[in-house]
Design brief:
With about 120 residues, the protein is mainly α. The chain contains five helices and two strands, in the order ααααββα. Strands 1-2 form a two-stranded antiparallel sheet.
Amino acid sequence: MTTDGSFSGTNDRTDDDYELTAEEAFARLSPQERRQVGRMMKQEGRRRHVDFADVDDDDDDDDAKYDNPKKLAKMARRSKKKDPGMLGNLLESFGGGRGGGGSQSGGITDLAKSALKKIT
């Protein structure tokens, strides 16, 4: 783990520790941000052939299912195991914390980007 709390490599923590850290990070997001991240993880997972079937067990468009940080953490854990770069790519699509993004970039706040950095 780096000094800012993010992971410096994929093997720094156990899967359970990673999931707990991810749940804490997702809990810091607003419900709207969790829904957006959940939708994007599901879409990117489909594109990258990451199967969330046992975690995201329905195919409806009800975004309320992403209100639960635990569910998002399970999806993050799955994506880390199947495609470790997926969440980092999603974070980059939000502006990745790079300068010039203002307080909000792509619909997600800098605070949310900071929380997500902890699990990428």
